[in-house]
């Protein structure tokens, strides 16, 4: 646990420079053109990688920080007094680590995953990423919602309007480096207000980031969230991955 004291640093490089974890040349397993651009699933050695519009998003090499995203949210709920069978929304299916973490915890009640890329959902249901998420997808608590995160949060998507005890968001490389330009609205005062409205009183917002963001911590406080803090996961090179945590007042 640490305060938001790290200076900003340049965003990650394109995947050609960032994703050197496998052996030999990467193999493209699927490539799709969707409403938000191109998404690619690759195998690089033993790793599976997701690339969006030419930028490396994530791979199956580690997953500690993606699992921390969900685990820290539950711990923060407990610190605030706890509640039975809390509900969680996971924003972004990714390679499935966050979903797997949630499904492995019997204390979670309703588990909703919002994912806007149909290709990513397909890669889990019928493709190679099922090796991570297959057990979780069979869990009766789990529901996959094919929708944009902000649309779901504002009530425009399936199941719109239902409150959550925790929002665990991992749809970008962080508040300071979004995958697509329209994602930036999620981190604005209006976007954070939408998050707060979908949280039950005392609910927790957890946001994954590839780097700390002092500005985002201030934005959370300005939006009325309390107990704003970060947890870090050291990485092999560069600054640690970060989970920003904040609580909606009861």
UniProtKB/TrEMBL annotation:
InterPro entries linked to this entry: SAM-dependent_MTases_sf
Coiled-coil zones: none
Superkingdom in the source lineage: Bacteria
Annotated region (Disordered), positions in chain: 1-31
Keyword annotations from UniProtKB, A to Z: Polyamine biosynthesis
Xref: SUPFAM superfamilies: S-adenosyl-L-methionine-dependent methyltransferases
Sequence ranges of Low complexity compositional bias: 15-26
Protein's UniProt name: Spermidine synthase
